[in-house]
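Progress report, Aim 2. The chain analyzed during this reporting quarter is listed below.
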Amino acid sequence: MQLEEVTVSADTAHSAASASPVHTPRVAYFPDSFHEVNGVAHTSRHFEAFARRRNLPFLCVRAGDRSQAVMDDGNVWTLELPRSFLSFALEKDLRFDPAFLRHVPLIGEMLERFQPDLIHITGPSELGMLGAGLAHHLNVPLAASWHTNVHEYLARRSNWFLRLLPRRQSAATGRKIEDLTLSAASILYSNARVLFAPNPELCQLLERKIGRPCHLMPRGVDAELFHPGKRSRDPEDREQVLGFVGRLSIEKNIALLAAVQQELEQKGFRDFHFLIVGHGADQRWLQERMPRAEFTGVLKGEALSTAYANMDLFVFPSHTDTFGNVVLEALASGVPAVVTPDGGPCTIVRDGETGRVVPDEDFSTAVAWVLADPVRHAKMRNAARAHALTASWDSVFEDVYKAYEAILPQQVQTAH
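Predicted structure tokens for the chain:
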């Protein structure tokens, strides 16, 4: 297969490498997803943008719609390769291609030109496994960031099967699925010399399970795009809007949204509706149970920022998110959030200050508590925005580059 567009030659690549400061590592990045709508893709796009802003030597090898190799401004390179007809869906817009190995010669050629000092992978996808194998083959250090709790996702997506078993056996089987999946993922991550995770609890888990140092890699937010000033609702509109942004599937615990609506109505709340942004396998199920809710599908850019700003409270019931980019985007938009005590979102929300951190059974009570007092709600909106302003993408990736130092040869040290 020939690349449709190749703007990299061996001579220009060598020149770019020579022009780069010797103390700046040359990073080859293999993300699980890049163009899709999920946390890995969101982080990966920002990582590449960071490298471009800083003019760092950075190669992003990713799956996309067409074959292309591009070198931008001498330092940021991309190699985008298509998945085959053998690929199968993991999500509505995310696929896995068991035949991606056919691209090894092209990827190997690009790596030979780029001469990476390290390879960074983001998970157990075809890209992640390929990146880990190439790091071993080229004898360069491997870094790995954990973005998705695949073990918890698989267990929840096995509910259709687990429900067929007796209760005790179902619980034991669910735990076994989680343990086996975590062990399988750990085999890949054990090849890395340094790990990254988005919350402290997950970092500790990986260090215990894999025995490698793990560094925090939280998320930043574009506080100009996600801004309270994007609110377009009539100031006289007194209806309260409860928002959710994310994949509409079982691992996001979206059934709780319908339960919250029902419980609020039973408590006497009537002047509210849900604004639900996203798509997924369980969308129809949710629509049938929430006929008053507004379902927008996937939104991006200004449309998404306006949707956030038009919310009064963000309701995010997921137990499996490792961080919760959408929670941070809501806070930046001046929208307090109600989240569970599990995973990453509870590390973003300050209970009683920028939202509430409560178990499932207390969600409707927490929502009512926030919205029933306009003064308290206004204070939370201001505190949410102020807290989000402390989250910078630049600081996130600066810390990642600092962590690279521990696995790089002495002659390759990161710039500060």
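Residues 10-220+393-407 form a domain with the Rossmann fold fold (CATH 3.40.50.2000). The chain has two domains: 10-220+393-407, 228-388. These observations will guide the mutagenesis work planned for the next reporting period.
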